[in-house]
Design brief:
single chain, alpha/beta, UDP-N-acetylmuramoyl-L-alanine:D-glutamate ligase, 10-stranded mixed beta sheet, 4-stranded mixed beta sheet, 10 helices, 16 strands, 27% strand
Length: 334
């Protein structure tokens, strides 16, 4: 592995088409000033000075891919409401194709984060997670059946909003395999069981511990064992994101850990979305899993240094790779 090899991989991003399927969300941010206590109750009064919006959930995965030059087709369900209108408008502005469904069956999922300076005071979630109708699931299946030509990979971004049944995922994973398309899953602990036989699963530390039922030791002595248990459960390659401690990777029987590339950590919101997006884009562009892990680690390090649900642009990634030392293997602990 060398720097020029990594640069060639990311330059190939623009030639890739990736489908992102999952739970779409609208992230809202209220930027406030807090300087007094409410006379009504012993709580702070947060005066809103600004309100901003970002793509969240599967939409954030798609946004990360689009910012790196990848052609993206986003598939999911958006409510026929004001948040849904704004979400579709934001996708259009970012040139992200949306082939999902808009309907009255459920409202658009949103997360509102209240900040004072650099500190998050509160998060308010609005979601409707009832089971969708079978006819909606059938429409999604027909989309996949008819739109896999030229697709380099599929990402399942599942946030446990009950969008799709386990049998649906099983059928799509098999359909992708028949078409020689790799599938990548970034689900929650409650939905991991749906994703057996994907190419790669990407839990974070807490999720991995929950799924395996075992804590990762402080010195990481059992990290390889935990990756192995995940591999046995899901018959998939494994990447565990470890926050400030980087990431662990099990590629078949080959295990290694990468130190974090972040110099400062302000906000980890959406960092997992960045990691799965860059891993997928890199693999689709011909990278080995080791090379993909190095690239995604660099990208995630850039994202956690920003406030809010952030992305790493192609130019930013290009600059960061050009600045790293030639000896990339020094970053990898086997």
């Amino acid at each position: 592995m060398n720097k020029e090899r990594l640069l060639n991989i990311i330059r190939n991003f623009k030639n890739q088409k990736i489908i992102v399927f999952g739970d779409l969300m609208l992230d809202k941010y209220l930027w406030t000033v807090v300087d007094r206590i409410s006379p009504e109750a012993p709580v702070q009064v947060a005066k809103v000075e600004n309100e901003t919006f970002a793509l969240g959930g599967a939409a954030n995965v798609a946004n990360n891919l689009a910012s790196l030059g990848v052609s993206v087709d986003l598939v999911g369900l958006i409510g026929n409401d004001a948040d849904g209108v704004l979400l579709r408008q934001m996708l259009k502005e970012r040139h992200i194709a949306f082939s999902g469904l808009v309907g009255n069956q459920r409202s658009t999922v949103s997360k509102t984060r209240v900040f004072c300076g650099n500190y998050q005071l509160l998060r308010i979630d609005k979601e409707d997670v009832g089971e969708i109708e079978k006819k909606v699931e059938k429409l999604f299946f027909n989309y996949f059946k008819n739109n896999l030509s030229g697709v380099g990979a599929i990402i399942f971004s599942d946030y446990a909003k009950h969008l799709i049944s386990p049998k649906f995922y099983e059928s799509i994973i098999k359909l992708a395999a028949r078409n020689k398309i790799k599938t990548f899953a970034d689900p929650t602990p409650s939905t991991f069981y749906k994703f057996k036989n994907v190419y790669l699963i990407k839990p974070n530390r807490k999720e991995a511990e929950h799924i395996v039922g075992q804590k990762i030791s402080d010195n990481f002595s059992n990290l390889k064992e935990i990756c192995g248990k995940l591999n046995e459960k899901f018959n998939a390659n494994v990447v565990i994101t470890l926050g400030k401690d980087g990431m662990a990777v099990l590629d078949g029987s080959k295990f290694f850990r990468l130190k974090t590339d972040a110099k400062e950590v302000y906000d980890v919101s959406g960092a997992g979305d960045t990691t799965i997006a860059v891993l997928t884009a890199s693999i689709a562009s011909g990278a080995s899993l080791e090379e993909a892990a190095v690239i995604s680690n660099i990208c995630a390090g850039a994202v956690v240094a920003k406030l809010g649900t952030a992305i790493c642009s192609f130019q930013e990634l290009l600059f960061k790779i050009e600045q790293i030392p030639e000896n990339l293997t020094a970053r990898i602990k086997r």
